[in-house]
Amino acid sequence: MEILIVEGDPDLGDLWARHLRRQGGKVTLVATQSAAILALQTKRFDIIVLDLILKDGSALAVADFASFRSPDTRVVFVTDTTFFSDGSIFAHSANACAYVRSSTSPEDLAAIVAHYGGAK
User: Fold this and answer.
1) 119: Cβ–Cβ under 8 A, 6 or more apart, which residues?
2) How many CB atoms lie within 10 A of CB 41?
3) What's the pTM?
4) Most buried in the list 7, 8, 60, 90, measured by CB within 10 Å?
């Protein structure tokens, strides 16, 4: 499974990437909108783990570009805020499949990624 992680916190991104690689995932880790767009232009991903509040850029722009470029690619949004906690992210992003807290255990995140990234 090809996985794109877009996370501005390098420690958190590395933690997720290690767990997903142990599960057999091929992980590309980037920190910004522009790096995510570049990755999406050069490779097809099964699933994206996307920090909703990027320090550099817009997560919704990344999700929108992914939806245009590869309509089957699903997005797991992660956040440490209450923004979109009402579930409205699913109305704003057609490819959203999950919305979880950044504090979700890496094991649980890996299970979510395996479930949604493998289901086509």
Assistant:
1) none
2) 9
3) 0.90
4) 7
**Looking at beta carbons, which pairs linking 96-104 to residues 24 or more positions away fall under 8 Å?**
96/63, 97/47, 99/52, 100/76, 102/12, 102/51, 102/78, 104/78
Spans of all domains in the chain: 2-118
Q: Which amino acid is at 84?
A: F
Q: List CB contacts of 44: < 8 A, sequence separation 6 or more.
A: 2, 70, 73
The yes-or-no verdict on residue 65 having pLDDT over 90 is yes
- The alpha helices in 1-105, defined as continuous H runs, are 10-22, 33-42, 59-69, 89-92
The CATH superfamily label for domain 2-118 reads: Response regulator (3.40.50.2300)
Q: What is the pLDDT of residues 97-114, one digit of tens each?
A: 888 888 999 999 999 999
What's residue 96's pLDDT? Answer: 83
83-91 average pLDDT score: 56
